């Protein structure tokens, strides 16, 4: 399949900073693609370069096979939903949605039906005659969405579209955006700093840091098989344990890890010297007594803190050698009376759940 | 009762007799002279010191005073021409300062605001000196090829060009400052959204930027209009013997005592200014809803 968007060695420099540093990747048609990273990682700059709002970069951006070099923002087959929504305050909802068709000289007979269709799509039909100041944040966002979709772009760009909404509405809109994308079958590229948003909506995620793409993968692979400490730490919570490789074992590595002593963990590639052992907090079992399993990695510790979230608790356990591990436990009967500060407990997990991170 | 002992909060000023009294005093000091001016325009007395009875005849007297009416028409004509030109130049300046980055921008902004802070008397003298220089230079061409120029500029309202130009010079920075302040609150993403949706630079300006800055433009125009209408100092220095404006004319009349017809003419001016203000506010009202 031919990529709909192709980013080829794109670099963008500002005085004193490199916002986007030699980035290359392809986005396939109908994909829901997320650019994820902390603020200042260059994800928004990259999105704006695709839109044509940021010029003067190096490298090539191809949209549907066409090189976009020298093509102005108003001539590109992409449309954007802005972070502030940028809904025109002096126009009604209907005029806002019709704007993009009017300025490009679409015949009036075509504008009417297309605007209605777009408003239906985001369920804003009944509010078509309102002004933006009579709308809530969520409704304004729907207008911004309809305004972009009515243009039937090849790619829809979304710049932190949910960051201004409250938590409940955000969750609802995540679901709705994903459904909308499936229903209309346009490529979506979303920029976000919220890993939950990216994981729940996107087909593929590019994690960026300091202008570079660290890893591109589907949500599950990104969470279960992060390739670097940065990605592991940025996506969800993770325990990173300093370790040193002491030798190869049958289908794995022997390591001497801080607080754990000698452990054997599975690893495909080669590794030597200092590494990090990574294990997600929900893979750990919190036990009152020493585990009976001989294959599991286990360590004894003392509960230092308990963060209660209702359905789960995040428990911080101090282990030997100053090692600190966090573990997620379901708040069910199994942990009754166990989650108390200062309590002596055992942590145990399967070696298969341990990742060896070399970068 | 507990309520009686409750101490007054800092914002309960409605309950402090001192503050109420002070507020009334401020209003009286502000408006008493104006009310008095309007009231005495209806006074049936030539010397206009003691109230003698109600009459509207001084409005007729003022209306029949040809030189007063001429000065009045001049003032209005100058104010209108000045408003149109100053609004265009001022708005363009504001857009230029808002839109572009260039070397010495802060300096340019400061220089632009100079006419606001320079004492009017200095502006007046400066303009006078410049005009007399131009006048002297023109006279050397009296019989030369641009003789028609002098003829052209003795026709109304072109004979007001000198005063109008001076008014434009001191009022356009006010327009620029007001429009610039309005533009400072503009969300640049609106402009980008417009372009992203396929609009050209010009379409974006017309459909998005202009509607947004319109309230500022109208407020600026109104400011230019009132500034021009009641300017005395600069006009006094630039008015020729044949051209008079209302404030200058009133000044020359007042030296011989304030007669009720001056009150009447002043009242008419106040009414015109008020009507213009209300109209402008009305025009501004629909675009009140900025996000």
User: What's the level 1 CATH class of the largest domain in chain A?
Assistant: Alpha Beta
**Corresponding CATH architecture of the largest domain in chain A:** 3-Layer(aba) Sandwich
Binned, the helix content of chain A reads: 10-25%
Q: Any idea of the CATH topology of the largest domain in chain A?
A: Rossmann fold
How would you summarize the topology of this molecule?
The complex is a heterodimer of chains A (359) and B (291).
Chain A: E1 5-14, E2 17-27, E3 32-36, H1 43-51, E4 58-63, E5 66-67, E6 78-81, H2 93-102, H3 108-121, H4 137-149, E7 155-159, H5 167-184, E8 187-192, H6 195-201, E9 204-209, E10 212-217, H7 219-224, H8 229-234, E11 239-249, E12 252-257, E13 261-265, E14 274-279, E15 285-287, E16 297-308, E17 312-318, E18 324-330, E19 344-349, E20 355-357
Parallel strand pairs in A: 3-8, 3-9, 6-7, 7-8
Antiparallel strand pairs in A: 1-2, 1-4, 4-5, 9-10, 11-12, 11-14, 12-13, 14-20, 15-19, 16-17, 16-19, 17-18
Chain B: H1 2-5, H2 17-40, H3 57-64, H4 66-99, H5 105-117, H6 120-139, H7 147-152, H8 161-184, H9 188-196, H10 201-229, H11 233-238, H12 246-254, H13 260-284
